[in-house]
Specification:
Radius of gyration: 20 Å
Strand content: 15-25%
Number of helices: 9
Helix content: 40-55%
Number of strands: 9
CATH topology of the largest domain: Beta-Lactamase
CATH superfamily of the largest domain: GAF domain
Length: 257
């Protein structure tokens, strides 16, 4: 190997140590804090952060100068996860669901108070809902996000909502805590959620939970469409397919029943 192998191994070790500093309690960290924790020069930490961000292992956070874990780590985790690969379990079911509904199908996970889309199959219609894998939306404005929030233990949900800073994206966006809590209670009871133009005017969706082998909700599956193609009656018809498809993905992940 050309170069200094000791230096190369040391840089990899430092990158690994840096990534391990992120946790549920420390979702976002900056250069100064990481430098202090790792005992490395700020210039070294800055280079590590920039390189890891280029590789999508990290991404810019919401706090100026802050970083958080990137979606590439989710892909790596899914590759080694025991009990089945979420992507492999979901994609065939998503393809069937798109074929049966003719609409956009999405799979999302929860990160803080954001719904992160990790898989997406676009509608074949001319008028489409443009987005991409990796898109983040406020969980309170999406059907997938409401499903995932409603599945959280009560104490964890309360802790996350303590950081909620609602922004009225559309005239239909929920910005009141009492209303949000009521909607999430409804979702938890009935097992599915709707987004009625809350994240984007002219777009509606319905979502349902995906469970792992142990019964924990690990993702949410949804179908999204424009309002001219999916009025209330059409959305009700789609709902059953979404719920059934989410249950099928869960079974493919090892959930019994």
């Amino acid at each position: 190997m050309e170069g200094n192998p000791g230096w190369r191994l040391n840089s990899v070790a430092n990158a690994a140590r840096l990534l391990k500093e992120f946790s549920r309690d420390d979702r976002e960290l900056g250069v100064s804090e990481l430098s202090r924790r790792l005992g490395l020069a700020t210039s070294t930490v800055h280079r590590l952060l920039a390189t890891l961000a280029d590789e999508r292992l990290l991404e810019r956070g919401t706090v100026p100068g802050g970083y958080r874990l990137g979606l590439a780590l989710f892909d790596l985790g899914a590759t080694v996860a025991a009990g089945g690969d979420l992507h492999e379990a979901a994609l065939p079911v998503m393809a069937t669901l798109r074929a049966s509904t003719g609409e956009t199908v999405q799979l999302a996970v929860l990160d803080g108070l954001e719904s992160v889309y990790i898989d997406r199959l676009e509608s074949p219609h001319t008028v489409r809902i443009f987005s991409r894998v990796g898109t983040r939306l406020p969980a309170t404005t999406t059907s997938t996000g409401k499903v995932l929030l409603a599945a959280l233990p009560a104490e964890e949900l309360t802790a996350r909502l303590a950081d909620w800073s609602p922004r009225r994206i559309t005239p239909h966006t929920i910005v009141d805590m009492a209303t949000l809590r009521s909607r999430l209670d409804e979702v938890a009871e009935r097992g599915w959620a709707e987004n009625l133009e809350e994240s984007r005017v002219g777009v509606v969706s319905v979502g349902a939970p995906v469970h792992d082998a142990g019964g924990a909700v690990v993702a949410a599956l949804s179908v999204a469409a424009t309002t001219d193609r999916a009025g209330p009656a059409a959305l009700r018809r789609v709902r059953a397919s979404v719920i059934e498809s989410a249950a099928l993905v869960s079974r493919r992940l090892g959930r019994a029943g």
